[in-house]
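Not sure how to ask, but would you mind making up any protein sequence you like and the tokens describing how it folds?
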Amino acid sequence: MWPSISELTADYGTATGERRQVDLADGASLELNTQTSIALRPSNGIGERIELINGEAMISRGMELAQALTVIAGDGSMSSRNARFNVSQSEPPATKKGGAFVQQKDNTMTISLRPILPLAAALTLSFASVGYSAEIFTTNGVAINGYDPVAYFTDHKPVKGSDKHTATYQGATFHFASAAHRDAFTANPGHFAPQYGGYCAFGTAQGHKASTEPQAFTVVDNKLYLNYNDSVLKTWRQDVSGYIKKADANWGKVRLQPDP
């Protein structure tokens, strides 16, 4: 199928089976799912605007900023200064009407839905903010219980990080044992960050979120996987490749679940 005119004007996109992360200058992070197209639109005077042309994207803003980020999808739009939320385009029912204003602590989100004609794009919003699901498992805002993600690859064991060396990724704070590890992470966070947001890999394979312990880890094909505890890790090791295949297939839905 040939791409549409809108897709040809996209600033960022992914092909079938491809995922991509894009970090914008204003501090927003976009995680594009497969077959997704995103376009940067002119500012409306109160903040930056992004249009989801098709597909699905997770938008993260790890810090509260003065200007709001507006996401447009079909006939709907949403604005936020500090939040993580999932936006997708899909085929809707024959008609859809509605409108809502959502006020949360520390951030404001506005949803505007106008009547949508048959086969027009529907706006689906799944919030991942305070009181909603999170993309990365954290304890008091810190990922991997403060352990250094880079050390799993360099030292081949869990090493406690320091709050003197930190970096933010997808709204979560990571601690590192050294400035060199921090710099390596910021240069390629998608490589060093644990798979499935640091939630239990075995749990993701089973279709649900679960917390993890830093010592219950494996590194497979240069990717870090964490598990609930040592007992679950033993089960995970019985069929690592099979569980990874299941977890990869489940993560798109599991990541939208409430925190465990």
Remarks:
- DSSP finds seven helices and 18 strands in the chain.
- The chain has two domains: 5-127, 138-254.
- The radius of gyration is 19 Å.
